[in-house]
Amino acid sequence: MTLADLAEASGLPARTIRFYISRGLLHGPVKGGRAAAYSGEHLARLELIHRLQSQGRTLSEIAGLLDGSEAPPSAAPAAAWWQYALADDVVVCVKAGASPWRTRELRAAIDEFSARVKSAANVRHTEEEKR
């Protein structure tokens, strides 16, 4: 398949696929040049990379896993945690060291949850004042 076909099948932009090749996460085409060709193995590898990223792994970690130089951890190592106090009785703990995109996702979820907690507290406070 062509790079355009691989991009469409994987749902990734061609630019990302080229980046993965340059980082060594993905092998180059089986046939080079203007008529570069990619195989089903390329697509399977892209799907594996996507699954590992969805688990919160960085590209560096994924590269180590794919080339066999880094074995997946058998037990969770000790880790630093960030704590976000949302209210007097609510604290959210998040493992530090997540990738930047994952950190943004978590921060957005925490902000949304925080708004809900504050809204519920305001409603409860208003109801108590009415009594």
Fill in the keyword field for this structure.
Multidrug-efflux Transporter Regulator, Chain: A, Domain 2, mainly alpha, 56% helix, 131 residues
Question: Can I get a quick summary?
Answer:
With 131 residues, this protein is mainly alpha-helical. It is 56% helix and 10% strand.
SSE layout:
Layout lengths: L2 H8 L3 H10 L16 H15 L4 H9 L13 E7 L2 E6 L4 H31 L1
Antiparallel strand pairs: 1-2
Order of helices and strands: HHHHEEH
**In the CATH hierarchy, what is the architecture of the largest domain at level 2?**
Orthogonal Bundle
Mean pLDDT: 85
CA(first)-CA(last) distance = 70 Å
Instruction: Please count the beta strands (DSSP E, at least 2 residues each).
Output: 2
Strand order of the largest sheet: 1-2
Largest sheet: 2 strands, antiparallel
Radius of gyration based on Cα positions: 22 Å
Supply the number of helical segments.
5
Uncertain runs:
none
What features would you describe in this structure?
The chain is 56% helix and 10% strand. The chain folds into two domains: 3-67, Multidrug-efflux Transporter Regulator, Chain: A, Domain 2 (Orthogonal Bundle); 81-130. The protein has a two-stranded antiparallel ribbon. The longest helix has 31 residues, at 100-130. It has helices spanning 3-10, 14-23, 40-54, 59-67, 100-130, and strands at residues 81-87, 90-95. It has 131 residues and is mainly alpha-helical.
